[in-house]
């Protein structure tokens, strides 16, 4: 298979198995990643894979490429992405390669990798792997392979410093047949709560629903189970375990930005660094609430690799993004770990007699759209965004350019940004009234269409 440049994306390497990447791709990525590790004077890396059907053969070929460059491989096997992150730090390699396509459909697979054990590679660091492969200049050596198991240390990490209160909690957790199926039962068995599992058998065909917990349709069965058993909350995980979604006791979905409000209401007087990081897609209600709590809001660009890195660099006690990635650093190393995030909400609930559906009482009300995608060719999408920038300048709007263009108003916002994962421009709108929401949506959609036509 010819190497396809487009699979080397902004945050990771990702494509359709058999069409855009295959065993040869994995082998070459292993050689390129190993070559870069040698350049950085690193001698070893952790390798793990999620439960997608193509992961095993990709892992075998990736490892083959790595050892041929002289890199020693700590082979974790089937594991969640957070387990891979933890293993890199636990064994002191501070380098990791995870084979996963996260929440993408089952036909996809890919690679997330790190050189420092703090955050994943992004931007030019991902493109450099492609460049090394194209150069055909690889280091040579004879690395060793060692199988490792961090199950017990990882469970201890998750449960360490969790202090449940007196209130008994009933929780339903939905693994979606994803990779959390290999570890979630063991963790909940060691947590003093009543837990009811859903779809906790590993199956890379994802037969019950697509494992993206930030899409409401994928939480339907979780909602039904929460209501059936009278649970205090429901927790959903994505395919590789680094993202999380929630259902409250009344069956309502709690979006990640709303979850962040709940957490900050609990954390604000328990941490010294009173700054909170979140991405540009999040509701203005989060920013409003942070100001009420005396927390400085730090708005940042979208992308797990970016937001995790920025949260670590700023040593913020908690950060996250709308897509379901959240980073606890108050008493946890800062990995985006869906299982851990859910347990922190369980811990919070156990210390209050209030039901989960009331923990957002008093927040400012906004109406918002879902993320709206407009197909725009990669060759022109950033030129279109620049024209939107110029439009906001002419209108003298208050706007951010950290990630596309986000025009901010007292009563809402309009976000227009270029997708980093495909030929799309994405939009999201929010306002205090439905009429104002439509007004903003119409204005910026019309202008976007005009800019696209002008740029073609």
Keywords:
single chain, 456 residues, alpha/beta, 6-stranded mixed beta sheet, 6-stranded antiparallel beta sheet, 13 helices, 21 strands, 36% helix
Structural notes for this entry:
The chain is of the alpha/beta class and 456 residues long. Helix content is 36%, strand content 21%. It is built from 13 helices and 21 strands. The protein has a six-stranded mixed β-sheet with strand order 1-5-4-2-3-6, sandwiched between helices. A hairpin with a 6-residue loop joins strand 9 and strand 10. Helix 1 packs across helix 4, helix 8 runs parallel beside helix 9 and helix 12 crosses helix 13. The longest helix has 22 residues. It starts with 12 loop residues before the first strand and ends with a helix. The model has no long low-confidence stretch (mean pLDDT 96).
Number of helices: 13
- Helix and strand content put the structural class at alpha/beta
Average pLDDT over all residues = 96
- The level of helicity is 25-40%
Low-pLDDT windows of residues: none
Largest sheet: 6 strands, mixed
What's the topology here?
Elements: E1 13-16, H1 23-39, E2 44-49, H2 55-68, E3 72-78, H3 81-90, E4 96-99, E5 108-114, H4 124-135, E6 145-147, H5 151-159, E7 170-174, H6 184-189, E8 194-198, H7 220-229, E9 233-237, E10 244-248, E11 253-254, H8 256-267, E12 275-279, H9 284-293, E13 296-300, H10 304-313, E14 318-320, E15 326-328, H11 338-350, E16 367-368, E17 372-375, H12 378-395, E18 398-400, E19 405-409, E20 412-418, E21 424-431, H13 434-455
Parallel strand pairs: 2-3, 2-4, 3-6, 7-8, 7-9, 12-13, 12-14
Antiparallel strand pairs: 1-5, 4-5, 9-10, 10-11, 14-15, 16-21, 17-21, 18-19, 19-20, 20-21
């Amino acid at each position: 298979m010819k190497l396809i440049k487009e699979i080397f994306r902004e945050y990771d390497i990702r494509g359709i198995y058999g069409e855009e990447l295959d065993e040869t791709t994995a082998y070459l990525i292993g050689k390129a990643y190993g070559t870069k590790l040698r350049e950085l004077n690193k001698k070893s890396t952790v390798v793990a894979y999620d439960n997608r059907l193509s992961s095993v053969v990709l892992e075998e070929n990736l490892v083959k490429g790595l050892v041929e460059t002289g890199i020693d491989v700590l082979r974790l096997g089937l594991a969640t992405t957070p387990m891979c992150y933890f293993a890199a730090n636990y064994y002191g390699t501070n380098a990791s390669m995870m084979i996963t396509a996260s929440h993408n459909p089952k036909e996809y697979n890919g690679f997330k990798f790190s050189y420092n054990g703090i955050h994943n590679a992004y931007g030019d660091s991902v493109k450099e792997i492609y460049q090394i492969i194209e150069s055909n200049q690889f280091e040579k050596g004879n690395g060793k392979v060692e199988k490792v198991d961090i199950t017990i240390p990882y469970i201890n990490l998750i449960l360490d410093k969790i202090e449940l209160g007196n209130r008994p909690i009933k929780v339903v957790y939905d693994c979606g047949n994803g990779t959390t199926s290999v570890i979630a039962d063991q963790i909940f068995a060691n947590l003093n709560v009543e837990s009811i599992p859903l779809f906790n058998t590993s199956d890379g065909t994802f037969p019950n629903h697509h494992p993206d917990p930030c899409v409401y349709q994928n939480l339907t069965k979780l909602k039904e189970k929460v209501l059936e058993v009278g649970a205090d909350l429901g927790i959903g995980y994505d395919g590789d375990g680094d993202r999380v979604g929630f259902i409250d006791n009344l069956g309502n979905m709690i979006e990640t930005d709303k979850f962040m409000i709940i957490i900050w209401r609990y954390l604000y007087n328990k941490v010294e660094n009173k700054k909170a990081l979140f991405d540009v897609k999040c509701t203005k209600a989060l920013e409003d609430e942070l100001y009420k709590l005396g927390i400085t809001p730090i708005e940042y660009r979208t992308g797990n690799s970016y937001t995790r890195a920025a949260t670590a660099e700023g040593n913020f006690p908690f950060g996250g993004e709308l897509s379901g990635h959240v980073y606890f650093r108050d008493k946890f190393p800062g990995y985006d770990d869906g299982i851990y995030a859910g347990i922190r909400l369980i811990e919070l609930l156990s210390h209050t007699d209030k039901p989960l559906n009331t923990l957002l009482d008093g927040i400012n009300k906004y109406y918002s759209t879902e993320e709206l995608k407009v197909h725009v060719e990669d060759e022109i999408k950033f030129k279109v965004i620049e024209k939107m920038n110029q439009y906001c300048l002419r209108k003298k709007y208050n706007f951010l350019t950290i990630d596309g263009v986000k025009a901010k108003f007292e009563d809402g916002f309009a976000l227009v940004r270029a997708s980093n994962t495909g030929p799309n421009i994405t939009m999201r709108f929010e306002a205090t009234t439905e009429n104002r929401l439509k007004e903003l949506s119409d204005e910026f959609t019309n202008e976007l269409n005009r800019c696209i036509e002008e740029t073609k």
